[in-house]
Design a protein that fits this description.
heterodimer; A: about 160 residues; alpha/beta; Rossmann fold; five-stranded parallel sheet; 5 strands; about 45% helix; B: about 45 residues; two-stranded antiparallel sheet; 1 helix; about 30% helix; about 30% strand
Chain lengths: ~160, ~45
């Protein structure tokens, strides 16, 4: 990975970011966690092999962004997106998959994904993924701040 | 993935390699040549 661009996608004002990465492949889980944390030192990556365990983990742990593979044997990543959206409507969800083809991005977005990052040869994709995760988390934090300010304004003017 | 493709990019031209990541040794990980080289280089750079 090109060192000067390493933090190009990161915004230090977003602070620490906790990512839950879901993939059925153990080596890819470790690889993704290792490379994302190298690219962005403010990122902590938690891993999960079983998509069915994700709702429970989201209840029990602090997670700023969910990153999921699409094709998994126990539950498809897009089904997981739809399920997560029911209880966590504003949680950033990034689909990280090698599956390509017509309609994949549209299906991911229709399922409630915030963003889609295609897997590509090499390791530069982890810089792209880290940048997209950072951006999504920062946008969510800004939205929440603005919402909170509006609520305070309403309260004080009432 | 488990379908004979590179776990990192999905390339069907993958071969098994042993991979040490996060102090865990993963055996016979399917990777294409490009991904294997890039991962090895990255791991060697920052150990």
């Amino acid at each position: 990975m090109a060192r000067p661009a390493r933090y190009a996608g990161s915004d230090p004002t977003a602070g620490q970011v906790r990512v839950l990465h879901v993939d059925d492949d153990a080596a890819l889980r470790d690889l993704t966690a290792d490379l994302l944390e190298r690219v962005d030192e403010g990122m902590t990556v938690l891993s999960e092999a079983d998509p069915r365990a994700v709702p429970e983990r989201l209840e029990a742990e602090i997670v700023d962004c969910l990153v999921t593979d699409k094709c998994m044997p126990r539950r498809d990543g897009l089904e997981l997106c739809r399920e997560v959206r029911e209880d966590h409507p504003d949680l950033p969800v990034v689909v990280f998959t090698s599956q390509r083809g017509e309609g994949v991005v549209e299906r991911a977005m229709a399922a409630g994904a915030t963003d889609y990052v295609p897997k590509a040869p090499g390791v530069d994709q982890y810089e792209i993924l880290a940048g997209r995760v950072r951006r999504a988390v920062l946008e969510r934090r800004r939205d929440r701040c603005e919402e909170s300010e509006r609520a305070t304004e309403r309260h004080t003017t009432a | 993935m488990g379908d004979g493709r590179c776990i990192n990019c999905g390339d069907p031209d993958a071969e098994p390699y042993d991979l040490l990541v996060r102090s865990t040794s993963h055996e016979e990980v399917l990777l294409c040549g490009t991904c294997h080289e890039a991962i090895q280089r990255e791991m060697a750079e920052e150990g």
